[in-house]
Design a protein that fits this description.
The structure holds two protein chains of two kinds. Chain A is mainly beta. Chain A is built from no helices and eleven strands. The relative contact order of chain A is 0.34. The radius of gyration of chain B is 13 Å and the shape is globular. Chain B starts with a strand and ends with a strand. The chains are: A mainly beta, B mainly beta.
Chain lengths: 113, 111
């Protein structure tokens, strides 16, 4: 099956710093990439939708200036959490969409201390 | 709006019994409904999906039914085993291809 690689799998950062998470589709081109956030014992909440070469579309309540998304190619999307705070600690998961199927990355456990 | 409701939030069954999880969705234009199993700290794993042109799909002990008129779909697991214990999520595809997830069901299968 299609492989989506997400890195890092976990990261600990200091409050106020920025963290970049990468999501790559290894053996297919993704027309669209989705970014989700999942707090403990909760569902996956869609944060934003990104299409290659265009600005991301953010869901209501998600700060676009805090969660910067770049989708420079059909195989790579990045999410940068800027000026991270402890409340940003969460599990972030990307999903690459081919137009027919969606494939998930391994997820990134972010802890802000 | 774009919404998926899932029930129950927790479900405990005895090994060998059946488990049923139900979801409803808001947009009649949605045409794809996957079910995922997620183990702690891992990515969701697709276990079965159904498209809007069929009413039922089976894969061994797992089946999914879809009622387009009522906008609801259900996951059925028969002959449950302890290794079926996990959190299960339903999802529906909305405009632009985005998957919106239900709240999740924590299934516990007791030996």
């Amino acid at each position: 099956g299609a492989v989506v690689s997400q890195h890092p799998s976990w990261v600990i950062c200091k409050s106020g710093t920025s963290v970049k998470i990468e999501c790559r589709s290894l053996d297919f081109q993704a027309t669209t990439m989705f970014w989700y956030r999942q707090f403990p014992k909760q569902s996956l909440m869609l944060m934003a939708t990104s299409n290659e070469g265009s600005k991301a579309t953010y869901e209501q309540g998600v700060e676009k200036d805090k969660f910067l998304i770049n989708h420079a190619s059909l195989t790579l999307s990045t999410l940068t959490v800027t000026s991270a705070h402890p409340e940003d600690s969460s599990f972030y998961i990307c999903s690459a969409y081919t137009g027919a199927e969606a494939f998930f990355g391994q997820g990134t456990r972010l802890t802000v201390v | 709006g774009e919404n998926v409701e899932q029930h129950p939030s927790t479900l405990s069954v005895q090994e060998g019994d059946s488990a049923v999880i139900k979801c409803t969705y808001s947009d009649s234009a949605s045409n794809y409904f996957p079910w995922y199993k997620q183990e702690l700290g891992k990515r969701p794993q697709l276990i079965i999906d159904i498209r809007s042109n069929v009413g039922e799909k089976k894969d061994q002990r797992i089946a999914v039914t879809l009622n387009k008129t009522a906008k609801h779909f259900s996951l059925h697991i028969t002959e449950t085993q302890p290794e079926d214990s996990a959190v299960y999520f339903c999802a529906a595809r909305f405009q632009g291809g985005k998957l919106i997830f239900g709240q999740g069901t924590e299934l516990s299968v007791k030996p």
